[in-house]
Protein 1
Amino acid sequence: MNDAAGQSLAEIGGRLQRLMEQPPDPADATELLALGEGVLEHWVRAKGREPTRDEREGFRLLALHRQGADKDPSFNACRETCRELAYHYNLLTLESDHEDSAQRARMMALVANHLYLFISGKMETEQLGEFCCSSKPLRTGLTGGVDGGRSAQ
Amino acid sequence: MSDKQTKTSKQKYAEVAYYPGCALEGSGHAYNRSTKALGKALGLKLKEVDNWNCCGAMEVKNIDPKLQTYLSSRVMSIAANKMNMDVVMAPCNGCYHNLKRAEWDLENEDKSKEVVGQLSQKAGHETYQAGQVETIHALDWIKDAIGEEGLKERVKNSLKDVKIANYYGCMYTRPRHIFPEKDAGPGTESTSKPHFMDDLLAAAGAENVDFPLKTACCGGAHTLSDSDTSTRLVANILQTAEAAGAEVIATECPTCHSGLEMHQIRAAKTLGIKTHVKIIYFTQLLGMALGLKPRAVGLQENVSDSFAFVKEKGLT
């Protein structure tokens, strides 16, 4: 598998941009998944943790998302984006000669780019997703917190 | 067994308390107009909640969550105790989310019950008790009161040549635990791949495209504080919809809708990313499918101009 390890977030963004500009190639699925993992690794490291090597439902990407969302419910704003990335990877690798493969590869690149944009935005403004998706209080206020962190689900 | 329990969803939703919320009186007025027009065309009754207040939106919720629970509970209390209604329908994702969240808090958090009781007493109205009303979204309303078959029977202008990407945004499905009726088996809404809007628009003849960013973050709440991030996220959503073959992004939330419209313009100006996909509320699309004129569903109130498009599609 291509490894995005060692690439800066900007380098990953640049690579995604190039992949989106060139004709979609189903063979890019493995690299796109690795780039998604690379983006998540940046988030996990930024939170002072070592990115997991575990897998969840057969994907390290989903395990990394889970790790990134730990104690940070707003990270669930990218949960479905990660799942779509895994879904498109499955489509492209399990049905590699499907007539829609090029279109699927194109969509996978756009989904990977969304994950990159969300996390790079969150690296600049950590509260991205906290204001809406997770409903995480910015401060406890007069009447205290509300649901003991259950919003993380 | 009470009347409330014996009523089917179809009967319960035929007349609902309508909670438009603040956005539908301002930037989302087209959604307000089209929701009312659609309800009228379908023979459904909306009784606006008397003297309604802010749901606590995002600002109050993020500073003092229990105050948001109280504000949302007051809306439900008026519907239940003053208007004697069983169902509150909120078309705005933010309002819908907050009322559902307040319901969950009052069901599960003793402290919330205590705070809501104290504030309700101080404000001089009956305290809302969890379970007194059912809060639904406009999608539930049409889906359950009319259904796909009912819509098909009423369609006058089929959406058959219209390719649509359905964008649900975040607050319609997240966080999962406040929507216990979702992910509950066949026929219920999914939080990971919502489909109610797809179902309704397909019933009106539309061709829904496979759109992988249905619930992806648009950076909505950061649209003023961090506009560049919002613009980049929205531009990617618009480009993905176009790449999926969509001519229209159907929306069901005023915040999503105005965010997509505004950042479509901004993406062209600041990033040079030009997209042509139209942004139209699902209520506007269904209304036109039922034969309502574009102006009757507020198409002129959208920021983006879709008149030529709907004319080309025979929806005028």
Note: The CA atoms of residues 6 and 38 of chain A lie 8 Å apart.
Protein 2
Amino acid sequence: MLKPKAIQQVLKQATSGGVRATLLLNSEGSPISFVAETDREARIYAAIASNVWTTFEKGTKSMTQDDGVRFLVVECEEGTLALTTVSKMMLCLVAKPEVGIAILKAKSDALVRHLEEPLTNVMTNVS
Amino acid sequence: MDEASDMGEELQKYFDNLIARIDRLKAITMTDRDGVVLIQASTSGTPPKVLEPMLSTTFAAVSDQASRLGLKRNKSLVSFFELYQVVQFNHSPLITTLVADADSNTGILLSLGDELKEIAQLVATVTHER
């Protein structure tokens, strides 16, 4: 069984040093667990992040022979969104503009390393 | 030869030089939001698939969505694949796309943004006038 509170403790560790929000979304884009200032903010990030990933994945499917996009960084004037997948879910980090891409990549890689195995086990047991 | 075609040649030369200057940069394209290529340069080994207009039109859609995040206007998008990384700039009304090897230096590619923005503005003005 998934324990959102336990996942939240892990996500919380990455939500520092300019990272404003960290979210774990299911394949439909609904938040499973998140750390953000407000619920409203988290819902907006989740909806748009999921749309961005799906649009980009569909649009670039024919472009590459490999298994598609692995990591996506969307830079806006007042913040940066970093997206990747973990197990069959989506991991999303939202940071202040001064946070470098390398830091976001390192944080999301660390989260993926930590969450991949337990989430895959849960998903296998569910299906 | 008129002024605009002179400028076209100059810009093509600049793009070709950029490909030669930046390590592991495979291709660079400047398109409008419909994917119509205005300037393009690539190395000989670049697979034609990565030069398809779909990459620009996808970016245009993603950029519009990202601008609704509440983080103001989208500036750029960096995507990592197994073999390539793609850096795209929102140089409205144009889109600049850089395709490089997956292990090339992303920071260097992103630092070209301001330089390329000026060129995009120039191209946008000329194409608008014509």
Note: Chain B touches chain A at residues 49-50, 52, 54-55, 57-58, 61-62, 65-84, 106-107, 110 (CB under 8 Å).
